[in-house]
């Protein structure tokens, strides 16, 4: 297994304290962001009859809302990098409320697409991304647990909103319900108020310091001389600064990261079948002749199981046995989700749908609990903000097309089973792809790590040999120097002896 991604920050995350209040705020905002597009499916049958439209046309409401939620990821990431999580979430809560209150006065399905789909979806995007990002700033060692608890907000909200929406519809109709739901969504502003900023105080950058120094010198020539830059150089520097600022908000170098690309491709494929089964679960139950409250209760069952599965998955993923292999666990969860959908057509009674909802809730919770944790495991905390933005903008295309494609299959064949089979097959394929490619990625990283260690050992041995050689060379040089200096002395002694003998004979 490769070492974990770099999670070095310029400060030490508290892993608790006010971080738990942040988790509670994220619990609320993430809960609304994920659960709300699914819960409004309760109104689809009645809205479909009111506007006299098809399944595929009504499915676009949830699709546009979900696509805006994910597609607004880069915008949200940029705003978080510029202003922080707190103001972005508060503004997103206001946008959600305005969108749903406006939807209560819509007179056409197109207007519903704009108000309930686009405006509310964008507001949910401004709630989702900052909530996920700020947890990574408050937690490090306990991050999987914190993410699991925050992600549990989705099933809790879904469990609450599903019967609440049915109750609101029975008493106020879909227009009055949308108006009340818009007011409820304003609670996201309260959740955003809990997101206290954390991290080192940002000081002026080096370039800003250089510019300030140049301005000071130009204003005070006596301090020193400053060479005036060429206007063309200033334009190039401005362009470079612009590119650097863009990369600061959205790091495009992630597209050269093998693990990130594998995660991106697998998730884009997965989302083609991820949300459609939830959107059409209640309508499918009504299609089988099940009463409205029992159909809505299926979503509550799914949400209750999901609620338990998310924190439990976070605890399991944080264990020493699973965390080093968390990418494999994530791949298994996606494939397990797909198998549940493939078996759903066998459920033709309410009891069968209850069993399907239990297993679907378990699989859905497992995937959602690890959705962002696996991404942070691959790219690290420092690049996570950019990674979330890039992933969500790429995923929004398949999120947008998933439910309408499912609705088209229902309209064409007059049966829901083909929609469930399509979703199941796509998710099994995505899980298999991620498992195989993550295995390949881990092997390549392991080989690279071994080669690096081997290279370091080789350099260490080479350095040791060079040291011994240098010592030997020094000794030889000393011996050679001794030899060169002793030879003349011996010859001179011999010459002196010969001269003395010659003198004595004479």
Tag the structure with descriptive keywords.
about 500 residues, globular
Summarize the entry for a quick read:
By secondary structure, this protein is mainly α.
* Structural shape: globular
Q: What's the helical proportion of residues?
A: over 70%
Q: Low-confidence spans: pLDDT under 50, at least 5 residues? A: 1-7, 201-206, 221-229, 480-493
* SSE topology string: HHHHHHHHHHHHHHHHHH
How would a crystallographer describe the biggest sheet? none
The average pLDDT score comes to: 78
Tally of contiguous helical segments? 18
Global Rg: 33 Å
Number of strands: 0
Oligomer: single chain
Strand content: under 5%
Structural class: mainly alpha
Which helices and strands, and how do they pair?
Elements: H1 19-39, H2 44-51, H3 55-71, H4 73-83, H5 85-103, H6 109-138, H7 143-151, H8 153-185, H9 187-193, H10 206-219, H11 231-249, H12 258-270, H13 276-287, H14 292-317, H15 326-343, H16 350-379, H17 384-413, H18 417-505
What does this structure look like?
The chain is an all-alpha fold. It is built from 18 helices and no strands. The chain has helices spanning 19-39, 44-51, 55-71, 73-83, 85-103, 109-138, 143-151, 153-185, 187-193, 206-219, 231-249, 258-270, 276-287, 292-317, 326-343, 350-379, 384-413, 417-505. Helix 5 packs antiparallel against helix 6 (109-138), helix 12 (258-270) runs parallel beside helix 17 (384-413) and helix 15 (326-343) packs antiparallel against helix 18 (417-505).
């Amino acid at each position: 297994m490769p070492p974990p991604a770099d999670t070095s920050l310029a400060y030490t995350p508290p892993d608790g304290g006010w971080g738990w209040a942040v988790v509670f705020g994220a619990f609320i905002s993430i809960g609304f962001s994920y659960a709300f597009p699914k819960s409004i499916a309760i109104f689809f049958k009645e809205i479909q009859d009111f506007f006299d439209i098809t399944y595929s046309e009504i499915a676009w409401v949830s699709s546009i809302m979900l696509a805006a939620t994910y597609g607004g990821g880069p915008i949200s990431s940029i705003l978080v990098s510029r202003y922080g999580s707190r103001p972005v979430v508060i503004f997103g809560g206001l946008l959600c409320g305005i969108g749903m209150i406006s939807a209560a006065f819509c007179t056409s399905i197109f207007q519903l697409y704009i108000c309930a789909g686009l405006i509310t979806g964008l507001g949910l995007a401004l709630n989702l991304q900052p909530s996920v990002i700020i947890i990574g700033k408050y937690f490090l060692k306990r991050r999987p647990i914190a993410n699991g608890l925050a992600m549990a907000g989705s099933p809790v909200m879904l469990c609450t909103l599903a019967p609440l929406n049915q109750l609101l519809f029975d008493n106020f109709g879909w227009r009055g319900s949308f108006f009340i739901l818009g007011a409820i969504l304003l609670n996201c502003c309260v959740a955003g108020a809990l997101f206290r900023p954390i991290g080192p105080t940002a000081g002026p950058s080096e370039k800003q310091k250089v510019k300030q120094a140049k301005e000071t010198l130009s204003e005070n020539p006596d301090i020193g001389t400053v060479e005036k830059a060429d206007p063309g150089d200033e334009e190039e520097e401005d362009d470079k600064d612009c590119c650097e600022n863009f990369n600061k908000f959205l790091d495009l170098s992630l597209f050269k990261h093998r693990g990130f690309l594998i995660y991106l491709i697998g998730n884009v494929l997965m989302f083609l079948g991820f949300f459609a089964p939830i959107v059409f679960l209640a309508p499918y139950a009504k299609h089988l002749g099940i009463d409205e409250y029992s159909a809505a209760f299926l979503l509550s069952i799914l949400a209750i199981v999901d609620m338990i599965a998310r924190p439990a998955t976070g605890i399991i993923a944080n264990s020493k046995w699973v965390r080093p292999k968390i990418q494999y666990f994530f791949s298994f969860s996606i494939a397990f989700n797909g198998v549940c959908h493939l078996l759903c057509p066998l459920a033709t009674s309410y009891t069968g749908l209850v069993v399907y909802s239990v297993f679907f809730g378990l699989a859905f919770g497992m995937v959602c609990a690890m959705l962002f944790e696996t991404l942070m495991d691959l790219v690290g905390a420092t690049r996570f903000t950019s990674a979330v933005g890039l992933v969500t903008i790429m995923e929004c295309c398949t999120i947008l097309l998933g439910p309408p494609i499912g609705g088209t299959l229902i309209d064409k064949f007059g049966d829901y089973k083909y929609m469930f089979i399509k979703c199941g097959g796509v998710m099994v394929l995505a899980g298999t792809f991620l498992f195989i490619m993550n295995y390949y990625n881990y092997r390549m990283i392991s080989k690279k790590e071994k080669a690096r260690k081997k290279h370091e050992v080789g350099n260490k041995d080479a350095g040791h040999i060079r040291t011994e050689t240098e010592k030997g060379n020094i000794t030889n040089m000393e011996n050679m120097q001794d030899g060169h200096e002793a030879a003349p002395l011996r010859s001179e002694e011999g010459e002196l002896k010969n001269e003395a003998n010659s003198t004595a004979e004479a």
